[in-house]
Amino acid sequence: MSLIAINNLTFGYDGSINNIFENVSFNMDTGWKLGLIGRNGKGKTTLLQLLQGKYEYNGIISKNVEIDYFPFEVKNKNRMALDIVQELVPKVEDWEIIKELNLLNSSAEILYRDFDTLSGGEQVKVLLISLFLKENNFLLIDEPTNHLDSETRDNLVEYLNKKKGFILVSHDRDFLDKVVDHIIAINNTNIEIVQGNFSSWKENRDKQDSFEIMQNEKLQKDIDRLETASRNTANWSNSVEKSKYKSNSAEAKIDRGYVGHKSAKMMKKSKVIEKRIEKAVDEKTSLLNNIDRSDSLTIKPMESRKNPLIIADNLQIKYEDKAIFDKVTFEVKNQDRIAITR
Predict the structure, then answer these.
(1) Which helix H or strand E contains 158, and what residues bound it?
(2) Could you tell me if residue 315 is inside a domain?
(3) What's the average model confidence in pLDDT over 254-264?
(4) Does 340 reside within a domain?
């Protein structure tokens, strides 16, 4: 086994304001079965294309394996499926191809039919075994269950459980759970790799989110309390400082030193509270960054400024010489509720 190492990967599309990835670093073992997850628009497809070397980027992607993508484009589909497999893997023996098909619970008969006559599930099987028959490669498998029936999907689960060395992208969470042993999660602020399937990752993510929400609420209460204490302490210090000069009596002059010392002590306390506020704010800003927020959807119907909406004067409508309306006059206003009866 070897590593695919990504170091300080930075990439953004031309014309975009923000980069898709900013100084991202992580490592993947080529023996892992990884599930790639992330909300739409977070960069799943972009990451797959970067791994294939389709875009220029800043940073380093180092690997000593060939990257293959599923599904790949088949040129000239009017050929036997066997020819397509042998073109991709020239040194493969027929028995090796048949063995792979047996793992997918499929008959070798499909190899001797034209590729374009195969069903969608059969085409998926032919393309997938072609890639797994290659040596020293790492697969990027993108939505393999699209348009598959439940039986073919189950066959695919069993097949992938016997394989390793791939990244799987799928919106089917149950499929991910049954196949992968690691998760690559593209979050709002980072990319993380964790051991386990989707459900274990989701459980830990929910716990983390809940903790951060509670911690955020606690810090906000602390900040509000500390800000109030800071204002009160500063105000008290200022008022005491001013009181030193309200009297010029000998007794007042003697007390000024004490009052000034007390004022300075309270001001120092105020500064300590301000530092605690700054620390709490720093802690707060590190929370909730990977929690997706969405505004509630509000639909407001447009109101017509025209009133009345419809005016009919001596309206006549005929259909096949039969009068539907005959010299009808009516008016519909903006707020009217209309019922049509026969």
Answers:
(1) helix 150-161
(2) yes
(3) 58
(4) yes
